[in-house]
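Record minuted for everyone:
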Amino acid sequence: MVAPEALADLLSDPYRVACPNGHTALKPATTTPSAYCRTCRESYHASELVDRRVGSCKPYRNGKD
């Protein structure tokens, strides 16, 4: 989940945010906290988007036991 107030900053980092289907071809909306996925051809609210940062994953995904 992405916080609405952080969406614009996160989308400026390529491949950082993905739609619920895993696509990263996102274009931020200008008037609402949402983004348009060019692959899905759907708009998603910030709460539906996924932050793909390594630190936001579960510990075992970082190679730690």
